[in-house]
Amino acid sequence: MTDVLAGEQDTDTVARFRRATVDNDIPALLDTLTEDAELFSPVSGRLVFRGRADLAPLLTLVYRAISDLRWTDSIGSGDTRILLGEARLGPFRMTEAMVLDLAPDGRIRRLRPHLRPWLAITAVALWLGPTMLRYPAIVRRAAGFQGPTRPARRE
């Protein structure tokens, strides 16, 4: 995996995020996120994974499964950045536009990955869906399921 942008100033959060993803360094990747960071699923369109604790298994699975990750461009300034990249999942090549929203302290508070082509997204869904079933509580929270509610007790 390579980062063609590595020659840029590597002190900001986005550069550290790029390096961590390319190096598959999950602890360093998590350090670039706010505690309440959220990731909008590019596969389901409605799952939102929130908080470092829920993002850790998801990001570990994703970045350990892809290969040949290469960030090719970085666009934006201020609190919104877009990273353009390419990678492989098994035999499938995919391109990505990762929209990163930054918190006032410079860390990443929201990740919005956009993947293509359709065949690669399907491969990601077919692989990641069953894999994430090992973490049912995380998937329920991402779906917004709060669990059963109990009627108020009457005194």
Characterize the structure shown:
With 155 residues, the protein is an alpha/beta fold. Helix content is 34%, strand content 34%. The protein has a seven-stranded mixed β-sheet with strand order 1-4-5-6-7-2-3. The chain is globular.
Task: Please describe the structure with a list of short key phrases separated by commas or semicolons.
single chain; 155 residues; alpha/beta; seven-stranded mixed β-sheet; 5 helices; 34% helix
Question: Unreliable segments (pLDDT under 50, ≥5 consecutive)?
Answer: 6-10
- Structural class given helices, strands, pairing? alpha/beta
**Mean pLDDT level:** 88
Described by the principal axes of the CA atoms, the overall outline is globular
- The string of secondary-structure elements, in order, is EHHEEHEEEEHH
Task: Count the DSSP helices.
Answer: 5
Beta fraction: 25-35%
Q: Into which percent range does the helicity of residues fall?
A: 25-40%
Task: Report the radius of gyration as a whole number of Å.
Answer: 17 Å
- Which strand order spans the largest sheet, edge to edge or round the barrel? 1-4-5-6-7-2-3
Q: How is the main sheet built?
A: 7 strands, mixed
Q: Gap between N and C termini, in Å?
A: 63 Å
User: What is the tally of beta strands?
Assistant: 7
Compact description:
The chain is built from 5 helices and 7 strands; from the N terminus they run βααββαββββαα. The chain has 155 residues and is of the alpha/beta class. It has a 7-stranded mixed beta sheet with strand order 1-4-5-6-7-2-3.
